[in-house]
User: What shape does this take?
Amino acid sequence: MAGNPRSEAAAGAAAAAFAELFPAVYLRFHRRDAKRDGLPAASRAILQHLTVAGPLTVGEMARHLERAQSVVSEVVDHLERDNLLERVRDSRDRRRALVWLTDAGLAYLERDRDVLSRDLLARAMARMTPAARAALLRGTRALIRADAGLPAPALPTHQRSRTS
Assistant: This one.
């Protein structure tokens, strides 16, 4: 009920309570495994680009990423040695070698996207009742759905106060 002062006040109070709880959730459950220490940024960029662009040749990747082909080739060699990428022959042109993610590469990217530790969350959720777990997930999904389609706030969201 937009425009209802009582409803707006209740929404504001709920927002304040959630905003107070969120830092505690983050601090308690954030990943502590130095997730960003695993690969250099250039390696991570190649893995992430392939998830969007699909299998590519080294030359195509170099053009997409605006990097020298020799540099991209060296990074791909390293990722191939780490079993995160593989080279496969193009079925339409056997002269072309396409670079694609291995299952290990896909799993690495999935873990890399996680902000919160699944293990820590599972440990806590195991102590919750099934009804409480369902309510938590239902409420979180409802919060995300409620904001869907609304314009994103202008960044940055935190303004520094200017003092003279």
The radius of gyration is 23 Å. Residues 158-164 have pLDDT under 50 and may be disordered.
